[in-house]
Amino acid sequence: MQDMVHSFAEKVMRPIGIALDKMTPDEVIAPGSPYWTYLEELKKLEITPKTFMDLSPEERGRLFPIVMEEMGWGDGGLSIIYGACSLPPLMALVFNRTFLIERFPDTLRGCWAITEPDHGSDSLDISRQAFHAQGNYGRPNCVATIRGDKVVVNGQKAAWVSNAPTAEVCVLFCSADTGDGADTQHGVCILVPMDAPGVTRGKPLDKIGQRALPQGEVYFDNVELTTDYLVAGPEDYQRAVYLIHAEANSQMACVWTGAARAAYELAFEYAHQRKQGGVPIIRHQAVAARLFHMYRKVEASRALAQRVALHNHTAEIPSLQSAMAAKITATQTAFEVASEALQVFGGNGLTKEYQIEKILRDARASMIEDGCNDILALKAGFNMIDPDLF
Ligand SMILES: Cc1cc2nc3c(=O)[nH]c(=O)nc-3n(C[C@H](O)[C@H](O)[C@H](O)COP(=O)(O)OP(=O)(O)OC[C@H]3O[C@@H](n4cnc5c(N)ncnc54)[C@H](O)[C@@H]3O)c2cc1C
Matching InterPro entries, A to Z (predicted)? Predict the structure, then answer.
């Protein structure tokens, strides 16, 4: 499996990731773009959420991080496309929603919409542990009104929703109004077909890193569904937010370990080719020591990412705190190692001819993605005091 995914990462993901990085966000998703080739080739690998769910928890916990690291080695942004696609079917499987499992095959393009224009980090603080004493989270931007067996969604999600510009299904986390109004503390998790009447999308977002990953707003105008589409009702909302973050943060840890490894390997190779002072630069003590520290950080990041993935796939309740520790470690590692790699490349590292500056930009975005690392640390710290709250 590792060989198969590595070969895919090398032959498909890397060249397509580099090509998409140079395109405008509109060009990335236009018909004929290599973005679509990537999705077609990815399908052929047959590594959907169900493939992993059919394995034993231990096999899954060992194999999944290896697959995600290889993908991250290929391209960070393209790996997140794969990760985001997996979240709607995964939530249906975890909550055992038979209707949704059948309604949305796990081969569909998926997205996860939780962030709102006025609620970025707030959306991670359901229990309001990080709430400022003089703060007011105010009104939600997106509300699902539940009456009888009908759910009606109105409002919008932020431009940060990964895959939104092309997704076929969305796992939506939003506030719920069950008769007493809506606030940012009570919500629901719903699978929304992206072709449902009333769903529209914003323009794909232009950003410095992970440019291969299309992102954009989702708007909901009286989108009416039956309650069959609910993954988790208000009583299960906190649990759903906990579980999806535990999964997403663990995936992120593996992907960004892979990106860090890619930066390290490119620098290691370059240090053998580039000569200064009459010898390959790796012969200079400072360069060798720099490369050793990069290697040390990658190994530590992988060890933590794999340990957390194995624990979370086999434990009755996954550990969010551990997933956050792994996500923060891996994304910080990817950023530091990519920056060190750029230093090894010298001036060449700054040019678009080499891949290092792209990995650095991609890695920078990962420290904000799926929750700013600062907020994750704050929430994980509070989680150590009150493990039952999120
Ligand atoms: C590449 C990428 C992919 C993403 N994918 C998705 C996706 O698929 N779906 C989705 O819904 N969202 C997604 N996001 C959104 C992401 O989760 C948010 O960007 C993130 O949660 C931060 O929200 P914000 O950008 O609004 O920053 P803000 O919340 O506005 O934070 C700004 C700064 O203030 C700090 N801050 C905020 N609140 C506090 C507090 N209470 N205490 C201390 N400091 C605080 C933060 O740490 C940060 O430094 C993605 C983001 C990126 C960059």
Answer: Acyl-CoA_DH_CS, Acyl-CoA_Oxase/DH_mid-dom, Acyl-CoA_Oxase/DH_mid-dom_sf, AcylCo_DH-like_C, AcylCo_DH/oxidase_C, AcylCoA_DH/oxidase_NM_dom_sf
